[in-house]
Amino acid sequence: MQHPHKTALVIGANGGIGHAAAHALATQGWRIRAFARIIPESTTQNTGAITWITGDALKDSDVLNAAKGVDVIVHAVNPPGYRNWGKLVLPMIDNTIAAAIANGARIVLPGTVYNYGPDVFPEIDEESPQHPISRKGAIRVELEQRLERACARGARALIVRAGDFFGPGAKNNWFAQGLVKPGKPVSSIIYPGKRHTGHQWAYLPDVAATVTRLLARENDLPGFARFHMNGHWDATGMDMINAIRTACGKKHIPVHSFPWLLIKPLKPFVPFLREVDEMKYLWREPVRLKNDRLVAFLGTEPHTPLCDAVHQTLASIGCLPKISPVPTPDTSSIRQ
């Protein structure tokens, strides 16, 4: 379904989910304002339906100016490097909420499983109680509560919750910062989970396609809408490992356990390690989001086969050898 008169502001368009959402919406006819602190070097100019805007999500005036006249605001921003995450995330969502209310726009938020504690494991639906056991989870709960309250003041909200993200170009996630090393051939796999324990993954282009399809049904969505994705459910942990091996063409890449104990002394100095240490409980037992509501609403969930998704991801972050193009034969001296 085309949306020739709809405009979306994507805050955090440099990030994995922001980039994927911007391009998925653009392919469906949306006009995109891609908002980021730094415009990527590969984007030298505005192209087609995507217009880049330099701005700071912590400055309310920047967000308000960028959001004038938009129908949707995709809130896909995180503090760079997870620095001061706890102090910056809520002011960022407040600025997005103010801009959405001013324009009567819908906010789209990529949700996480951090909101939940073990009391609702192993299967979680949209109505499961949110009793987080981490600081980060408590902030995510507050963030979503602010969105729900904003819906009584003129905003609308759509939360699409999924498992651990991975996908082309995205490097700030477990896949690229834990399992493999971007820019290097895969010589080993570091797996954070317990053996034979299920884990849920979400391929970013599938998440973006889900958001796009839901927004195409705007007239059928409630003011405050929440949907869970199934994504890729890996019941034993071996599906992801074997998909990486297949993509690399190596059946016997060794797998090592994630060094949880070794990262403890580094936590004060490496913000990312401090954040992931809080989330280790999500790797110790199966945690699965149920997508019944999404399937009932859309009919199906967008789903890329795992091997294809992993191959695209590894190629994009420089873990697979680049294939040289086949040279074009020189036919200038060939007589006809």
From TrEMBL:
Residues 8-218 form the NAD-dependent epimerase/dehydratase domain. InterPro entries: Epimerase_deHydtase, NAD(P)-bd_dom_sf, NAD(P)-dependent_oxidoreduct. One of its GO terms (molecular function) is aldehyde dehydrogenase (NAD+) activity. SUPFAM superfamilies: NAD(P)-binding Rossmann-fold domains. GO terms for cellular component: cytoplasm. It holds the Pfam family Epimerase. It comes from the Bacteria. This is Membrane protein. It comes from Thalassospira profundimaris.
